From TrEMBL:
Gene3D superfamilies: Probable tRNA modification gtpase trme, domain 1 (3.30.1360.120). Keywords: Transit peptide. The keyword Repressor does not apply. InterPro entries: TrmE/GcvT-like, YgfZ/GCV_T_CS, YgfZ/GcvT. This is Folate-binding protein. It comes from Sphingomonas plantiphila.
Length: 241
């Protein structure tokens, strides 16, 4: 393993106990049946109105599920999931370990959002921090995390969840499912999170990266302006038209 693969801003949560998958199935946007060895899945926990609270990648670990999440949001995610646990014999806890990434094949599994993002795997939290990950992700138009998605600010489909494999429309109910399904049925997403060249931040700006010359904005689809439009997003916009 190359030393420079660690994503130090990521952390792990283990969900274990009785019927872990059934527990998560009623909460997250992804179908837990799709979470298999070598097949991690991107998902989110939403508000009842269908707005993103936390996004993460789910990994199968025998009977348990490991959640690859933002390190700064790990404790808040654990607290939120614990609200839904009630009296179930389920443990939700922070665990040691690291998330690793490489732009080149050789180790790990393809990122479940977009194959061009590269390869990802779990291991020890050791080695040098990977370089280039954030820019690589942003130039592909992929947003993630509380700063970019906004907590309780952005409808999940406006985060490009359908195009980036972050939602299942064939599973049963989950928190926020009603509004998400309604938007999908109408086949129209009026606003999108997009990456654009850095300019003066405004009301639509979610995150700015002066070192990269990029920013993330929440724009109406008819006013995307100078936003980066990768192929996957161009296809989505064409289907919405």
């Amino acid at each position: 393993m190359s030393d420079a693969t660690l994503l130090p801003d990521r952390a792990l949560v283990r969900v274990s106990g009785e019927d872990v998958r059934g527990f998560l199935q009623g909460l997250v946007t992804q179908d837990m049946n799709a979470v298999r060895p070598a097949a991690p899945q991107w998902a989110a926990l939403l508000t009842p109105q269908g707005k993103a609270l936390f996004d993460f990648i789910l990994w199968a670990d025998d009977a348990d599920v490991l959640i690859d999440c933002e390190a700064t949001q790990r404790d808040a995610l654990i607290r939120r999931l614990s609200i839904y646990r009630l009296r179930r014999p389920i443990t939700i806890e922070a665990v040691a370990g690291g998330v690793h990434w490489s732009a080149s094949p050789g180790q790990g599994d393809p990122d479940p959002r977009l194959a061009e993002l590269g390869w990802r795997w779990l291991g020890q939290a050791e080695g040098d921090a990977a370089t280039g990950w954030r820019e690589h992700r942003l130039r592909l138009g992929v947003t993630e995390g509380a700063d970019e998605l906004g907590q309780d600010k952005t409808l999940w489909l406006e985060c490009n969840a359908a195009e980036l494999n972050g939602v299942s429309f064939g599973k049963g109910c989950y928190v926020g499912q009603e509004n998400t399904a309604r938007m999908n049925w109408r086949a129209k997403v009026n606003r999108r999170l997009v990456v654009a060249p850095l300019t003066e931040p405004g009301d639509r700006t979610r995150a700015s990266y002066p070192d990269l010359g990029l920013m993330v904005e929440h724009r109406r689809v008819e006013a995307l302006g100078d936003a980066l439009i990768p192929g996957w997003l161009a296809d989505a916009l064409a289907s919405d038209a």
